[in-house]
Amino acid sequence: MAISKIGILGAGAMGGGIAQVAAQSGFEVVLCDVEMSFVDRALAKMTAFLDKSIEKGRLTEEQKVESLSRITRTTSISDFNAVDLVIEAIIEDLEQKKKAFSELEQVCKPGALLASNTSSMSITVLAGATKRPELFAGMHFFNPPALMKLVEIIRGYYTSDETIAELDALAKKMGKVTVEVKKDSPGFIVNRILIAQFAEAIRLLEEGVASPEDIDTAIKTGLNYPMGPFELQDFTGVDIAYFVMNYFYDEFKETRWNPPQAIKALIRAGRLGKKTGAGWYDH
After folding, report:
1. What is the chain's alpha carbon radius of gyration, rounded to the nearest angstrom?
2. Most buried of 38, 191, 222, 272 (most Cβ within 10 A)?
3. Residues with pLDDT less than 50, the chain
């Protein structure tokens, strides 16, 4: 099936970014969220990004207008009835994602592909909320989608070879580099490695080995990473790192994934209102 029209469920940082990449790549896009203000905010961010690209000579005004014209705004998933693919990019909550896919199953036309942008959850479990598990896969973009090149294409237990091939080709049309995750394992490739690094960096801090600043400096300078583990957690959200650690711990039942006490304390501080959006460099 030739994919020409893509539905994006969720207009946050990831959903909005994926919508932008798809529209700039020539695809028609239907961008949906629960409130139109969320969709409008995503469009405003896209416009600002494209304006900067024009200033840098990477884009023309005409290309910007054409890209934005390919995006249809909506708050109703019923508007996904004619899309060839839906990419889900809502909150990292298993039950909410399953509910969303159950609803999409009722709306999407026969043969339409379904994909989740989840960074860690089971594709097989999510596909179980639909009647088309062979047409379901993971399509994990990285933040920010307009700049990050990688897309992980993840197989669920029932995902067909044809579905993997179509999503792989689609990502490459968007200018992305793809890797195939052949086995549905929590965290896939990147987050399986990244979360282990986060946890070990936090343990170094707890043991008094070094400060967050020096750990970040060591990793950036010694391994040539663009950001250290504490900087990266602050950028992507400490709460997300904490959630994924807990998810891994529940799935693997191994103590190495149990979130260290320091991150638990940081999350509690945020929830008690001592620091909204608590981060390592705020304490």
Report:
1. 19
2. 191
3. 274-276
